[in-house]
Amino acid sequence: MKKEEAPAQAVKGGLKFAVGMRDLGTLFGLTIIFVVFSWLSPVFLTAPNLINILQQSSINACIALGMTLVIVSGGIDLSVGPIAALAAVVSASLMVSGVPIPLAIMAALGVGALCGLFNGMLVAYAGLQPFIVTLGGLSLYRALALIYTDGNPVFGIPSEFRALTNGDLMGIPTPVIIVAVIALLCWIVLNKTPLGEYLMAVGGNQEAARIAGVPVALTKISSFVISGVLAGIAALILVGRLGAAEPTLGTLWELDAIAAAAIGGASLMGGKGSIVGTILGAIILGSLRNGLTLMNVQAFYQLLATGIIIIAAMLIDSATRKTG
Amino acid sequence: MTANTNNPVNSETVDASVDRLRLDGISKSFSGHVALDRVDLHVRAGEVHGLVGENGAGKSTLLNILSGVLAADSGSITIDGSPVNINSPLQARASGIAMIHQELQHVPELSVAQNMFLGRSVTRMGGTIVNRKHQERIALEVLATLDPDIDPSVPIRTLKVAQRQLIEIGRALMEDAKVIAMDEPTSSLTPAEFLRLARLIEELSSQGVSIIYVSHKMNEIFDVCSRATILRDGRNITVAQLAQTNAAGITASMVGRDLVEASHVSHASTVPVLKVSNLSRGKHVKNASLTLHKGEVLGIAGLVGAGRTELLRLIAGIDRPDGGSVQMHGNKIASNDPRAAIRAGMGLLPEERKRDGIIRERPVTSNVALPSFRFFSRWGLINRKKIADTSLQILREMNLRPLDIAKPIGTFSGGNQQKVIIGRWLAASADIMLFDEPTRGIDVGAKAEIYSLVEKLAADGKAIIVVSSEMSELMRLADRVLVMSEGSITGELQGDRINESAMLELAIANG
C-alpha cells in the first residue's frame, strides 16, 4: 500500500513527522463529520466552538493516549476512570488541608503511577490477563476512592489551582495545551524511543520479542504506569474545572478512551496504534457530541450515534486492511 | 527425464483412462503477476507423484487450487475421467481430494477424535449432541492401522508432529480420499519417522490411493515417488521418470542451471568462546556439556524430541535450567536471562520463525534492531538513519530480496526472513550464533545462500552451533557434530566420521 513512500521514509528517518495512511483515513473521517455539522449548524465551524470541542475532548484524549500505549503493547487498561477518581480525591483533600499545590499535583501523579505499577506488576510478573487485572482494579481503586472520602465529594479547591486549569494561552485553554504537550511526548515515546519499539514488538509477538532480548516485563509495566499517570493528569484537569473532586468521577472513561484509540487505528490484538490517530479519534468523538448537542439532539440519540460511528469506523478499517 | 525443457507439454504418452486425477491447462494470476501458466498435472491411480520446484515456482498455488482454497482462472480438473468443479475446500474433500498441509491445522485443546471429525461431527438426538464415544471408536479403528499407540481421546497438542500427520492421513482415509496431497510432509520429521511415512505411502498406493508428494528433499522424492512433475516460474518443465534420472538432473531442471556442491572448509580455531557445563532441564536435557571455539561450526544431530532445541534455548537463557552453567568468553552468564546472553554476544535463530523469531507487522529495520535499539539511540532517541544504513549494508551483502527494508517482515519469504534474523545478530555484533534448523521450509536456492552465509560467518571468526534434522546439512557445514538422544549427548563425530550411519547410530543410542 505504501510501497512508494516507504523506502524513502526509512532512509530519511530523523524527526520527520510521518503520518501514515491509516491516520489520513481517520483525518478523512473527521473531515466528513466537520463538513456535515457545519452544513447542519452555522455555529459549528466557528473558532469559539472549535476551541470548545478541543477542550471537551481534552480529558478523553489524555486518557486515550495512555490507553493507546497499553493497547499497542497487547494490553488493555479498564481501571483508568477509578484511578483518576482516587488521584482526584487524594490530591483535592491534600490541597484543602493546605498542602502546597505542586505537592498535591505530584500526589495525583504519584497515585496514578502507583496504581499503574500495581496493574503492571500483576500483568508482568504474576502473568495475569490485563483485562482481568484492570477489571479488578476498576473495582478496587473506585472502592478506595469511596472509602477515603466516605462517598462524599471534596469541596473547597483553592482558586490558585483552579486558575491553572481554567486559564488560557493566546485564547487556547490550558487543558488543551497540556494534552497537546502530552500527545507530543507520547508520540516521541512511541515513534522515537526504544520503549516505543518494545511496546510494538511485545504487542506484535511477545515470545519473539523476549527471545530477541526485549525487556518484556519492564515494557508492560511502563505502559501501565504511563496510563496511570495520565489518568492522574486527567483527574487534575477535571478537578480544576469543576472545583470539586467526586469519588465517582471518571465512570466509563475507559470505554471512551478505548473507542478513541480504536477509531485512531489501535488494534486490540496489540502491535499497532497511532498517537496522531488517537488524538483524531478523541476529537471525532468530541465533535460528534458537540455537533449533536448544538442540534439539540437528545442524549439517548447521541449515544446511538457514538455507537454507530465506532462500529462504522471499525468496518471501514477492516475492509481497507484486507484490500490494502 | 526428457531433455526438451522448452516444451511445456510432456513428451510421454499418457492414457487418459488410467489417470486418477488430471489438472489440465491450469492458469492463475494474482493482480497481474502470473503464478501458474497452463500447468498440467496428471496422476495415475495408486501412483506416488512428486511435485517439485523452487519456492515461487507455483507448487503452493497449484495445491491451493486443487484443494479448493483458490479458484483457477482457467483450466480443468478431472477425477477418474469426469470433470469436477472445485470451488471450496469442502467440495474438494467431497470430490475425494485430501490435503495435508505443511503446517498442520489442528485445534490443540480438542481431542484427536474431535479434530478428525471437525466440521462433520457424528451426532445423535437429531444433530444436537455430538456422539463423542462413537467418534472415538471410529477414530480408533482408522488409526489402528496407522499407529496403534495413538489414543483418540487425548488432546491433540500432546502428540508429536509425526503422529499429528498420521491423524490427517487417517482423516483423509475416513473420507475415502482418492488423492492425498502432502505438502512438505517431512519438514519436521526425523529420518526414522520419514521411513515409517514412506512405508505408509507405499501401502496407501497399493490400495489405489494416489499421492501427490511435495518436497524440497531430493532423496525423499526418489525414495517414494515414481514420477515427478517439475515446475519452474509457474510453468511445466517436464514430467520426470525418476528411475531414469538423478537428483542433480532434477535440481538442474528446477533452478534452470547446475548447482555446484561446495566442499567443507574448516575455520575452527582452538580458542574456546562458549563453555556449557552440565545443563539440565527435566527429561528434555540431561547434563549436557560442550565447548565451542572461535570460527567453529558445531553441528548438533539427533531425532526430533532428542532435546536439541531445548538445549539451545537453555544456552540462550530462554528457559530456566534445573542445573548447570553457561560461560561465554570465560565469564559465567546468568541463567534464564536472554538479555544477559545477548549482552555477552549470543544470538539465537529460533526453529519456529513465525512464533519465536519475527514481529510480522514491523518493518525489516525494526526486526533487525530489536535487540540493539539501545546502541542505535542517543539521548534516548532512536537514530533511524543509522539503523537503516546498518540494515541495508548487512542485508545487501546477504542478498535480501526484495531489498526493501521499510516493508513489514511478514511480507518476505521464509528464506529472506531468515536472513533478516541472522542480520539482527550481526547488527548486534553477536559472535556466538545458535542456528536451530536454519533451512527448515526454505527452497534449494535460498538454502545454498544460507549455507555460504554460515561458512562466511565462521570465516569471519564467529562461533556457530547448527541444529539440523537434515544430516546432509550437517555433513556440509559442521566441523564437529554432537549427537543427542533422549536429552543426553551420546557422542561426538569429527572429520570423516561425520556421516549418516554414524549419526543415526548415536541418535538412537540410549541416553
Protein architecture, described:
The complex is a heterodimer of chains A (324) and B (511). By secondary structure, chain A is mainly α. Helix content of chain A is 75%, strand content 1%. A two-stranded antiparallel sheet of chain A has the order 1-2. The longest helix of chain A has 27 residues, at 216-242. Chain A is globular and about 55 Å long. Residues 1-18 of chain A have low confidence and may be disordered. Chain B is α/β, with parallel strands linked by helices and 511 residues long. Chain B contains 17 helices and 24 strands. Chain B folds into four domains: 17-96 and 178-254, Rossmann fold (3-Layer(aba) Sandwich); 106-175, no CATH class; 271-345 and 431-511, P-loop containing nucleotide triphosphate hydrolases (Rossmann fold); 360-429, no CATH class. Chain B is globular and about 70 Å long.
Biggest interface, CB < 8 A? A-B, 30 and 38 residues
Total of helices of chain B: 17
Q: Number of domains in the coordinates of chain A?
A: 1
Beta percentage of chain B is: 25-35%
Oligomer: heterodimer
Can you tell me the residue ranges of chain B where pLDDT is under 50 for at least 5 consecutive residues? 1-16
Written as H for each helix and E for each strand, in order along the chain, the element string of chain A is HHHHHHHEEHHHHHHH
Rg from alpha-carbon coordinates of chain B: 24 Å
Counting helices, strands and paired strands, the structural category of chain B is: alpha/beta
CATH class of the largest domain in chain B: Alpha Beta
The overall average pLDDT of chain B, rounded, is 87
